[in-house]
Design goal:
The chain contains twelve helices and 13 strands. It is of the alpha+beta class.
Length: about 450
């Protein structure tokens, strides 16, 4: 016969008692007392009667001993009942204290949860953006009060409707719906849509809620009114275009006047024979030349910031940039993989300036290398050539506007274009061994694109 494991038996007994409701446990104590009293009484009668028979056989003695036995039985059972009742009463008090403590803890927890829920509800409804919990099909499960201020729909009437019903007033979702894209990508999707009455614009964001298997079970649907921001951006864009047109007309007009003035200067020079007057005319020519250089320098910045920054493949942009230059005699090695940079559309002009700098000032350049090194905080692009390099005392001057006015528009403009999205550029080459320009692209402004087969 197999022996039972005491620990297993104890754990099974604890499991058994845990399954018994508290009312049953309290009912067991009187039953135990009665059973103990019953067993003790039977044993007392059986053994005490035998003991009396062994002590005496006389009738008078048996009667007296029987009375004494009865008195002793009452005394002993009274003491036994006192001990048992006190023991079970103590257990009952302990259980009551435990229950009271548990109830107090539960009450505090419930109060804490209720307070936090009330705070969350207040925050949820105070948010000016319309926030809703939707099913993968777009059915609205829960919403905050912003739906009323944004669309004039009471929050209580929203559950059961669909997100596209409220935003577009249609029975089915529109093309380019961020909810549909979210179901495919299982990531956040964003879209800008026009209000159904055409009075403004909305920014719709959909974030998926996934289960343990990675399936979309619901989503957080957020709608923000971006009408004022969009109007401001459109007005700013329109102002930039008008300013660009005005600058173009002004530059053209001034250049025409300078060209005409230079013509008159040339005619006057042929008419004047006096040496002193000729000297004055030469100084006027120098001033006209400086004005022309200043106009060209200012005109080169005319398109800077006119268009929004965008993601650009660095490899493709560089190849396009050198296609405008006589780069056939220069060996070039490009190791940029599919690196993409978020910057001004004039990035092509930046790379063209660097390449032209090697052609113009490198003198002995035979090879150009364009590579990158990724880092935790930034990625660094290296544009290197094997030319004569840049003297140490000139490295800090080549990006200054005054230096560029003398040498022609170039590196200063390149630095300003890159700086629009926080990209820095420095020259770290060794004089006599070649130039090296390092462009540091901060985190968030670069990414690796998808390689096309």
């Amino acid at each position: 016969m197999a022996s039972q494991d005491p620990e297993k038996g104890a754990s099974s007994r604890e499991g058994f008692f845990r399954t018994i409701p508290m009312g049953h446990i309290l009912a067991l104590d009187p039953l135990k007392i009665c059973l103990i009293y019953l067993v003790f009484g039977i044993l007392w009668i059986v053994f005490s009667d035998r003991l009396l028979l062994t002590l005496s056989s006389r009738q008078e003695d048996l009667v007296m001993l029987s009375s004494i036995k009865g008195v002793l039985f009452i005394i002993v059972t009274t003491a036994l009942l006192f001990v048992l009742i006190r023991h079970f009463s103590s257990q009952l008090r302990e259980k009551n204290q435990q229950l009271t403590a548990q109830e107090e803890v539960s009450r505090h927890q419930n109060e804490f949860l209720a307070q936090r829920e009330a705070e969350w509800e207040s925050i949820f409804h105070a948010i000016p953006e319309w926030i809703a919990l939707i099913t993968p099909e777009g059915e609205l499960l829960r919403t905050n009060r912003a739906v009323e201020s944004l669309f004039g729909i009471p929050p209580g009437t929203v559950p059961g409707k669909h997100c596209f019903d409220i935003i577009h007033g249609r029975e089915c979702s529109v093309e380019g719906c961020p909810r549909r894209r979210m179901l495919e990508s299982k990531k956040r999707e964003i879209a800008e849509v026009a209000m159904r009455d055409g009075s403004g614009w909305l920014l719709v964001t959909v974030d998926p809620i996934l289960n343990s298997s990675g399936d979309v079970v619901s989503a957080v649907h957020i709608v923000r009114d971006i009408t004022e921001r969009t109007r401001s951006l459109k007005a700013l864009e329109q102002a930039k275009k008008k300013q660009n047109l005005l600058n173009y007309m002004t530059f053209s007009d001034i250049q025409n006047q300078i060209f005409t003035l230079a013509g008159y200067q040339h005619l006057v020079r042929g008419m004047v024979t006096e040496q002193r007057a000729g000297s004055m005319i030469s100084k006027q020519d120098e001033i006209l030349q400086k004005i022309t250089l200043s106009l060209k320098f200012a005109q080169s910045f005319q398109d800077l910031g006119l268009k929004q920054p965008k993601w650009q493949n660095a490899n493709h942009v560089f190849l396009l940039a050198i296609s405008h230059l006589d780069f056939l005699t220069i060996k070039h090695t490009v190791s940029l993989d599919d690196l993409e940079i978020f910057t001004d559309p004039l990035l092509e002009q930046v790379f063209q300036i660097l390449a032209d700098n090697s052609l113009t000032h490198g003198k002995t350049v035979t090879e150009v290398t364009f590579r990158y090194e990724p880092g935790t905080e930034a990625v660094t692009l290296f544009f290197e050539d094997d030319g004569v390099g840049i003297p140490e005392d000139t490295k800090n001057k080549i990006f200054e506007p005054d230096f560029q006015k003398k040498k022609g528009v170039g590196l200063f403009l390149a630095r300003e274009i890159l700086d629009t999205t926080g990209i820095s550029i420095v020259e770290t080459g060794e004089s006599g061994k070649g130039a090296r320009f390092e462009m540091r692209v901060p985190r968030g402004m670069w990414r690796m694109g998808v390689k096309k087969e």
